[in-house]
Structure formats: C-alpha cells, structure tokens
Fold these 2 entries.
Entry 1:
Amino acid sequence: MRNKGVLLVVSGPSGVGKSTVIHKLMDRRGNMEFSVSATTRAPRPGEVDGKDYYFVTRERFMEMVEHGDLLEHAEFVGNCYGTPRAPVEAKLAEGICVVLDIEVQGAEQVKAKMPQALTVFLAPPSLEVLERRLRGRGTESEETILSRLERARQELPLAERYDHTVINDDADRAALELGDILSRWENKEEEK
Ligand code: ADP
Ligand code: 5GP
C-alpha cells in the first residue's frame, strides 16, 4: 500500500492559470496541501503572508538558501522564489498529496531530486490568449507583463520534458483533466 503522498508539480508560463486550476482541483479533492513558497516579490493587493506566499527580504531568502531550507529555488523576472523543504517532506510522509505552483527552472530541480514527483505543464491555447489573461489579471506593470511574455516564449518549448501537458482552455475542464492525471499517477504508485 502507498504510504507516501504524491508530489504534484504544476508549472507553465505566468498568467496561464496555474493558480486558478490548482484551486479548482483542490476544491474538488481532499487530502491535498498547497505548498506556500517564499518570495522576495512584493505582495499584490489581497495576497496574504503565509497563505499565498511567505514574503521575505532578499537577505532572508539567501539565508534560507544557505541553510538548505529550500527544496528548489529560482529567480524569475527580477524576484526570487523558493519552496520550503520541511513542510513538503512532512506532508508527503503523512500520505498527503502536496501541490507546487512553480516556474520551469524550479520544476526541473524538483524532478531531478525527486523523480517520483508528477510534473504537469499547463499550457495556454495560444500566446495571444496568454497575453490577454496576463493583462486581464491587472496585477503587473506594462514592463513586467512584457518580461513575463518574453519568458513565456522561452518556456513553452519545455513542455515536452514534463510527464504530462494540460491545455488550459477552460479552467474547469483543465482541473478535471489534471485530477484524472493525478488519480492515475496515485494508482500507479500504489501498485509499486
Ligand atoms: P498563473 O497562476 O499561472 O500566473 P492565474 O491563475 O493567476 O495564472 O490566471 C491568470 C488570469 O487568467 C486570471 O485573471 C484568471 O482568472 C484567468 N484565467 C485562468 N484560467 C482561465 C481560463 N481557462 N479561461 C479564462 N481565463 C482564465
Ligand atoms: P507570481 O509572481 O506571478 O506569483 O509568480 C511568478 C512565477 O513564479 C510563477 O510562474 C510561479 O509559478 C513561480 N513560483 C511561485 N513560487 C515558486 C517557487 O517556490 N519556486 C519557483 N521556482 N517558482 C515559483
């Protein structure tokens, strides 16, 4: 019997809908925990420290890196982001599925360290749709939007390195597909 939770890594370009789809999946399934990342980015209106992110100074972030407190970390468009290791390991050991919403460099680090992790690339139907979503969210400056779109062009070809790709056309449909992929992975792990 499986006694460890599955580590689900959801990656893909900024604005594709990772956060939206993950929340829909978590609403539908129990026994799942969202991994709260540390970041040096400033909070957006409405974001809560300890729930959306741990908002930290660059100095504190570097301390976490040096102490080996992060499972993975990366710089993304001028800010640092990283996954606190201890809560992930504790939840997995309890048999709880942990979900990471991280960019592509971090996803590669996790897969290299933990090959049993399930990696899913969430892709937009097109770059035009991605741009519309990023702008529609209304959280970034024009300069940041352009940097994130430039980054997206580099990230999209990396989809083939993932265990699965899901196209986020409709968020409910994408969440269902992600849930099916996760269930199949869990069943496969149980059979091992
Ligand atoms: P990410 O976490 O990947 O940066 P978000 O979840 O914040 O992206 O989504 C970016 C924007 O796109 C949000 O305004 C969200 O409401 C919207 N969105 C997400 N998924 C869809 C979808 N399938 N169709 C239309 N809009 C979507
Ligand atoms: P945002 O600033 O829009 O919240 O996040 C920007 C990007 O950083 C997103 O693609 C998000 O998935 C990614 N990200 C969030 N947390 C982490 C993390 O802990 N590690 C890595 N590598 N990327 C992260």
Entry 2:
Amino acid sequence: MAYDVIFIGTGPGGYVGAIKAAQLGLKTAVVEKRETYGGTCLNIGCIPSKALLHASEMFAEAEHSFDALGIEGVKPKLNLAKMMAHKDATVASNVGGVAFLFKKNKIDAFRGTGRIVAPGKVAVTGEDGKVTEVEGANIVIATGSDVAGIPGVKVDIDEKVIVSSTGGIALDKVPANLVVVGGGVIGLELGSVWARLGSKVTVVEYLDTILGGMDAEISKQFQRMLAKQGIDFKLGAKVTAVEKGKKGATVTFEPVKGGAAETLAADVVLIATGRRPYTDSLGLEEVGVELERGKVKTDAHYQTNVKGIYAIGDVIAGPMLAHKAEDEGIAVAEILAGQRGHVNYDAIPSVVYTSPEVASVGKTEEELKKAGIDYKVGKFPFTANGRARAMLHTEGLVKILADKATDRVLGAHIVGFGAGEMIHELTVLMEFGGSSEDLARTTHAHPTMSEAVREAALAAFFKPIHI
Ligand code: NAI
C-alpha cells in the first residue's frame, strides 16, 4: 500500500485528521474535489460568514451605538464590494494556511472526486476526466454535508434570488426584503448580517421557537433581542412553496396547527432548512458501507461495517459542527496510529455568532427534565455586570445547570456579548467533571464579562455576591 491512510475531503474533519495522522508518523494522502482545501467551513461556511458577521457588526455599532458613547457625527457608508473583498481575503489566507500545513507535514494531495472502488482503493476523477487510483491501508470518509433544501418542496436555488448559505454570503447588493426560511443557525447568522446592512428580514420557522433544541428560556430571550434589532418572525409556520417571480420571489407558508396560507414577497429568499450528509458518488453501495438515516454508520472507533473504511464529521451521527469534526479527525488519526482516540460528546460547545452571541454546552433544562434528572439552576444577568455596563453590552444572561445531589455541572447556556468565548471555561469545567462550587471558588479577573459566569456558578452553588 502506498499510504497508511487516505482522507476523502479536506474540511475541518479531513484536514485536521490528515495533519494529525502525518504528525503521528502515518503516510497520509488527501483527496479533494474543490480547487482549495478547507471544505465548506473555510471556503463558503464558518470562515467567510464570520468575516461578514464581524464587518456588519462593526457597521451596525458605528451606526447605532457610537452616539451613546459620546462619539458623534459617525455616519458609516457601506461599501459592500470592499466588505466582500475582506471576506474573500480571509478565506484565501485560511485555505492557503491548510495548503502550507499539508506541504509541511508531507501530505500528498490528489485533486478530484474520490470514489471508493474497493477497501483500500480510491479512484480519483480529475476535472479533465482522468482517473488516478490511490491505494491506502485505511480510508477515512470526511466528505461533510450539503444544503438539504426544504423537504417535500421543490426549490430552484439559483444562488442569486433564491440562495443557500453559499449565495447568501456573496450577494452583490443589499436586498430590500430578505425572507429567511428556517430559524436555525444559518438563518439567524446570515439574517443578522443583512439586517445590519439594511435589509428588512423576516424569518419563517416551522417550530414555535428559533434555534430548536436550544434551552427554551435562552431561545425566547434571544428572539426578543433579534426582534428589537428589527428582525420579524413567523413561527409555527410551514413553508410550502418558494417561487421565483419576474422580480424577486415569493414564499408561501401555512400555520403548522392548520389555517390559511400566507405569501410573502422578497427580493431574495435564503433557504436555511438544514444540511444533509454528503455521500454522493462515493461508491458506498458498491463496497457495502452501511448508512443509517442517510448518515454513514460507524462504531465507537469511527470504523464503518467495512474493515479499513472509517468516517468522521457531518457525514456521521452527531451535531454538524466543524469542531466536532476536527476532534473526530484527531481521534481517528490517533486510533489508526495505535493510540486511544476519544471525543467527549457531552462537552461539545455550540455557538451562534450573532450579536449578541448565543453559546451552550451540555444539557438544556428541557433535556434534564425529560431525563428525570434533579437539577438546580444558577443565573446571572449581564445588566448586573460592571464591565458589560461600561461597554453598553448589558443584554443577556448566563445560566448554569448543575446536578442537585452532586453539584456537577451538566449544562451551561449564555446569551450575551462574547458568549462564544466565555463558554469555554464551562466546557473545560465539564470536561473535568467539575462542580458549580469549583467554578464559584475560582478567581475571575475584575472587571470582566466572565465574572457573570462565576456569579451564575455562585447562584447555582449558593448565592451570587453582586445581586
Ligand atoms: P438548522 O437545522 O440549524 O435549522 C433549520 C431550521 O429550518 C429548523 O429550525 C427547522 O425547523 C426549519 N425548517 C425546516 N423545514 C422548514 C419548513 N418547511 N418551513 C419552515 N421552517 C423549516 O439548519 P441550518 O441553519 O440550515 O444549519 C445547517 C447546519 O449547519 C446545522 O447543523 C448547524 O449546526 C450548522 N451550522 C453551524 C453554525 C455554527 O455553529 N455557528 C453556523 C452555520 C451552520
């Protein structure tokens, strides 16, 4: 065999896994059909969207928040092309970084679409149709996911008028009206970008809450914050048609509980109704790799039912998150190198990069109730945090859920400025099986937003000091 391991796909799962494998001494190859490495996340997902989220947040701050801080006369003017150029430059430097790391770690890259023709054998079809066969003792499927569309509804995504996240980060002008189908992570992040830049945004969501699966109290508060920013919500609304007109498009939806249908007109419609595992043209059926509800089925060591064929990331069970894929990439590399790779699925943080951010780790209150676990809650609002007041970032709260009998922290939820950074002390705490007392007794620098985290821990353990 030419290689110890071949990774198909170079997104956060594949590229991190490949680099780790090479560092552990395995002869490693990657197969990538895109022109650049990094997959959806680096090219058209996490990274470019964060460039736009940051730039549009700065724009909105300059427009709405400076005055209260005594900075007058600032009237920001949008140069969308320049903002997009910043996004493109961010992507270019990130994907370039992956190419550099591949070279540095002596990873061979094969450009084209990979198909598993037999265990240990991947046929790579290049753009010119030329097929190269690559042999490796192990194959790791890391092909990620693709836009799912709306189940049961025919939608013609042209990436101009009806867009997925791909077109949603590349519009050449700010749409006056943007209708977002799906109040999940993508819908709310990209909806926020365009709302800040001037669009009237309406989110149509099937469930009665946004960010389904999120702690209900946090989700409700967060929705109120977004509504204050001017985003409209149609909840409990099932989209039944998205049609292109002469100009723009229309979205038809009906109440999930039954009732009359409504139609909204939009200049642009963003379809953000989830993603599906990407297993197209991998040849899985021929080699007999089993799927389970569309996802590649693996054992606890990421091996499929076919020996030597592994899978990680969005294509397998679990949350579709870049960092979950990365950690599985590291774990599978360690397993292939004879070590004990492992991912703690109870401590995977998730962050919505809106303004304010929403971050959580572990169980929600609803999940604990459902599981019949006795818990206690500690909460602390940012209105009572000195640093938050100084920065005029007082929206939101920290909520910590701990086991009533043992005090072990089982979940934590933050909505507020910088939530995506603050969540990590709770993630580390949970990784070490820590209690709310552990966190409450840990000194936190003053004045920081993170003191609200400590105060919430104090509230769970005993009583907060500052409220
Ligand atoms: P999602 O699963 O987060 O949300 C999709 C929403 O669409 C759901 O709330 C669902 O109820 C709704 N929906 C489905 N069919 C509908 C219909 N016919 N009418 C109205 N609403 C309907 O999916 P999303 O936002 O597309 O994101 C895809 C994946 O990418 C997710 O797994 C997400 O975790 C991941 N992602 C993560 C990010 C982050 O961690 N910051 C950022 C962007 C994406």
